[in-house]
Protein backbone atom coordinates (compact mmCIF):
# COMPACT_ATOMS: atom_id res chain seq x y z
CA UNK A 1 0.00 0.00 0.00
CA UNK A 2 1.19 3.48 -0.72
CA UNK A 3 1.34 6.38 1.74
CA UNK A 4 -1.97 7.88 0.60
CA UNK A 5 -3.83 4.58 1.01
CA UNK A 6 -2.29 4.06 4.47
CA UNK A 7 -3.21 7.61 5.48
CA UNK A 8 -6.83 7.11 4.43
CA UNK A 9 -6.97 3.78 6.29
CA UNK A 10 -5.53 5.25 9.51
CA UNK A 11 -7.78 8.33 9.28
CA UNK A 12 -10.80 6.09 8.80
CA UNK A 13 -9.89 4.05 11.86
CA UNK A 14 -9.38 7.16 13.99
CA UNK A 15 -12.67 8.71 12.88
CA UNK A 16 -14.47 5.40 13.37
CA UNK A 17 -13.31 5.21 16.96
CA UNK A 18 -14.84 8.59 17.66
CA UNK A 19 -18.23 7.38 16.53
CA UNK A 20 -18.17 4.11 18.46
CA UNK A 21 -21.14 3.77 20.76
CA UNK A 22 -20.14 4.66 24.29
CA UNK A 23 -21.47 2.41 27.02
CA UNK A 24 -23.06 4.62 29.65
CA UNK A 25 -23.48 3.23 33.16
CA UNK A 26 -25.58 4.46 36.08
CA UNK A 27 -26.16 3.43 39.68
CA UNK A 28 -28.70 0.73 40.57
CA UNK A 29 -30.87 3.44 42.13
CA UNK A 30 -30.77 5.63 39.01
CA UNK A 31 -31.58 2.59 36.85
CA UNK A 32 -34.64 1.91 39.01
CA UNK A 33 -35.72 5.56 38.57
CA UNK A 34 -35.31 5.25 34.79
CA UNK A 35 -37.63 2.21 34.83
CA UNK A 36 -40.14 4.01 37.09
CA UNK A 37 -39.76 1.24 39.67
CA UNK A 38 -40.69 2.02 43.24
CA UNK A 39 -40.05 0.08 46.42
CA UNK A 40 -36.82 -1.30 47.77
CA UNK A 41 -34.54 -3.55 45.76
CA UNK A 42 -33.14 -6.75 47.20
CA UNK A 43 -29.71 -6.49 48.73
CA UNK A 44 -27.34 -8.46 46.50
CA UNK A 45 -23.67 -8.89 45.67
CA UNK A 46 -24.00 -6.21 42.96
CA UNK A 47 -25.47 -3.32 44.98
CA UNK A 48 -22.55 -1.06 44.08
CA UNK A 49 -22.20 -2.20 40.46
CA UNK A 50 -23.04 0.36 37.78
CA UNK A 51 -25.73 -0.72 35.28
CA UNK A 52 -25.57 -0.28 31.50
CA UNK A 53 -28.34 2.23 30.63
CA UNK A 54 -29.65 -0.01 27.83
CA UNK A 55 -30.73 -2.35 30.64
CA UNK A 56 -32.66 0.40 32.45
CA UNK A 57 -35.59 0.36 30.05
CA UNK A 58 -38.63 -1.87 30.61
CA UNK A 59 -38.43 -5.36 29.17
CA UNK A 60 -40.50 -6.65 26.25
CA UNK A 61 -44.26 -6.30 26.41
CA UNK A 62 -46.08 -9.18 24.75
CA UNK A 63 -49.70 -8.95 23.65
CA UNK A 64 -49.90 -12.67 23.02
CA UNK A 65 -48.56 -15.53 25.12
CA UNK A 66 -48.84 -17.96 22.23
CA UNK A 67 -45.26 -19.27 22.02
CA UNK A 68 -42.96 -18.30 19.20
CA UNK A 69 -41.47 -21.02 17.06
CA UNK A 70 -38.10 -22.01 18.44
CA UNK A 71 -36.84 -20.14 21.47
CA UNK A 72 -39.75 -18.64 23.44
CA UNK A 73 -37.81 -17.42 26.48
CA UNK A 74 -35.86 -14.21 26.82
CA UNK A 75 -33.91 -12.51 29.58
CA UNK A 76 -34.07 -8.96 30.92
CA UNK A 77 -32.39 -6.98 33.68
CA UNK A 78 -34.78 -6.78 36.64
CA UNK A 79 -34.03 -3.77 38.83
CA UNK A 80 -35.99 -5.21 41.78
CA UNK A 81 -33.89 -8.38 41.81
CA UNK A 82 -30.70 -6.60 40.69
CA UNK A 83 -30.24 -9.60 38.42
CA UNK A 84 -31.34 -10.89 35.05
CA UNK A 85 -34.72 -12.63 35.01
CA UNK A 86 -36.44 -14.87 32.51
CA UNK A 87 -39.61 -13.94 30.67
CA UNK A 88 -41.76 -15.80 28.17
CA UNK A 89 -41.96 -14.34 24.69
CA UNK A 90 -45.15 -14.41 22.71
CA UNK A 91 -45.96 -13.81 19.06
CA UNK A 92 -46.35 -10.05 19.20
CA UNK A 93 -43.68 -8.79 21.56
CA UNK A 94 -42.27 -5.29 21.42
CA UNK A 95 -38.65 -6.04 22.21
CA UNK A 96 -36.54 -3.38 23.89
CA UNK A 97 -32.77 -3.05 24.31
CA UNK A 98 -33.34 -4.77 27.68
CA UNK A 99 -33.80 -8.15 25.94
CA UNK A 100 -31.17 -10.88 25.81
CA UNK A 101 -31.03 -14.44 24.48
CA UNK A 102 -29.23 -15.79 27.55
CA UNK A 103 -28.84 -15.05 31.23
CA UNK A 104 -25.04 -14.86 30.95
CA UNK A 105 -25.18 -12.35 28.09
CA UNK A 106 -27.66 -10.26 30.09
CA UNK A 107 -25.48 -10.26 33.23
CA UNK A 108 -22.32 -9.48 31.25
CA UNK A 109 -23.95 -6.64 29.32
CA UNK A 110 -25.99 -5.07 32.10
CA UNK A 111 -23.61 -5.46 35.03
CA UNK A 112 -20.30 -5.70 33.18
CA UNK A 113 -19.48 -9.00 34.90
CA UNK A 114 -16.77 -11.37 33.75
CA UNK A 115 -18.11 -14.56 32.14
CA UNK A 116 -17.26 -16.73 35.15
CA UNK A 117 -19.08 -14.46 37.63
CA UNK A 118 -22.07 -14.12 35.27
CA UNK A 119 -22.28 -17.92 34.93
CA UNK A 120 -22.09 -18.29 38.71
CA UNK A 121 -24.99 -15.85 39.17
CA UNK A 122 -27.05 -17.51 36.40
CA UNK A 123 -26.62 -21.01 37.80
CA UNK A 124 -27.67 -23.72 35.37
CA UNK A 125 -29.13 -21.18 32.93
CA UNK A 126 -26.77 -20.09 30.20
TrEMBL record:
<dbReference type="GO" id="GO:0004867">
    <property type="term" value="F:serine-type endopeptidase inhibitor activity"/>
</dbReference>
<feature type="signal peptide">
    <location>
        <begin position="1"/>
        <end position="20"/>
    </location>
</feature>
<dbReference type="InterPro" id="IPR036880">
    <property type="entry name" value="Kunitz_BPTI_sf"/>
</dbReference>
<keyword id="KW-0732">Signal</keyword>
<protein>
    <submittedName>
        <fullName>Putative secreted protein</fullName>
    </submittedName>
</protein>
Amino acid sequence: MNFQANFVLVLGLICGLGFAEQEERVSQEECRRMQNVSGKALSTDVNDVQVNTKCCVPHAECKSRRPLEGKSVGWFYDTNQQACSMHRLGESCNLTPNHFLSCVLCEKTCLGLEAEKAQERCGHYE
